[in-house]
Specification:
Blueprint: H1 2-20, H2 43-54, E1 63-72, E2 76-86, H3 87-93, E3 100-105, H4 110-116, E4 125-134, E5 141-150, E6 166-175
Antiparallel strand pairs: 1-2, 2-6, 3-4, 4-5, 5-6
Length: 179
């Protein structure tokens, strides 16, 4: 019986100690979210990761690509992109599955300015198109794209759309927390 008490006492002490070391946050909750891996530094890998998360395709004629990755609470990825393309290139990113397209004449609205930190002056924008929707197979992933068509980028003199019109694209993709 003494051997059992000694083993039980040692085992109980080990359980108490292991409960105090690692595996818990400062408030005693279990830390079930592992630390995410750092984002890659090369643009091609970041672009590939954005496409994998969002289900959207960046057009092959995209130029001046800027990607801003960030981990949100719980290690959820969020990407913001900006690139230059043509109207035809903008159609590539806005024709993804489960994405709606919304046209508006003139500059982006205040919400679009805030979400994307749009740099272009409103008076230089002829048309704004917003494309948004959830990922077709993962409803936790939300995608929003804003396409700006600058007044001086219209190729036809009559102002009618042309596939070669200049376009400035802002894209955003984020994974929402699981419920």
């Amino acid at each position: 019986m003494r051997v059992f008490k000694a083993i039980f006492s040692i085992g109980a002490t080990a359980v108490l100690i292991s409960g105090c070391i690692g595996g818990t946050g400062s408030n005693g909750d279990s830390d079930s979210t592992p630390e995410p891996s750092p984002f890659p530094t090369e643009s091609a890998k970041l672009l590939s990761d954005f496409e994998d998360l969002s289900g959207l395709i960046i057009p092959s004629n995209a130029s001046d690509l800027e990607i801003e990755p960030k981990y949100l609470e719980g290690g959820r990825p969020r990407y913001k992109l900006r690139f230059l393309t043509t109207r035809g290139g903008a159609e590539v990113i806005c024709t993804g599955e489960n994405i709606g397209v919304y046209d508006s004449d003139g500059p982006p609205d205040e919400e679009q300015h805030d979400l994307f930190d749009i740099r272009e002056a409103d008076e230089t924008i002829a048309e704004t198109v917003e494309c948004r929707g959830s990922h077709p197979t993962n409803g936790r992933v939300q995608r929003t794209v804003v396409v700006l068509f600058p007044k001086d980028g219209l190729k036809k003199k009559d102002g009618e759309p042309d596939g070669k019109d200049s376009a400035i694209v802002y894209a955003y993709s984020v994974m929402w927390p699981s419920r």
